[in-house]
Amino acid sequence: MQHSNLPPLTWLRAFEASARHLCFTRAAARLHLTQFVVSQHVRSLEAKLGHLSVRRREET
């Protein structure tokens, strides 16, 4: 089995935490990362998978 095709575990953790908390900011706090890093991990995962998996909304 080739592991190079698998996404990094950090990307999957960021996605899971974001989905569980429904918020990148809360996911970031839980993971002890910045919101920007969590968002970038999720974007990278989406790019690797080839589709958007998270619906984003603008903060007001």
Low-confidence stretches: none
Largest sheet: none
Shape: globular
Q: Supply the number of helical segments.
A: 3
Task: Report the average pLDDT across residues.
Answer: 89
Give the radius of gyration: 12 Å
Fraction in helix: 55-70%
- The beta-strand count equals 0
H/E topology pattern: HHH
Quaternary state, please?
single chain
Strand content: under 5%
Distance between the first and last residues' Cα: 45 Å
- Indicate the structural class: mainly alpha
Please give a quick description of this structure.
By secondary structure, the chain is mainly α.
Mind sketching the topology for me?
Layout: H1 9-21, H2 24-31, H3 35-49
Folded structure, characterized:
60% of the residues lie in helices and 0% in strands. The protein has three helices and no strands. It has helices at residues 9-21, 24-31, 35-49.
Structural descriptors:
mainly alpha; 3 helices; 60 residues
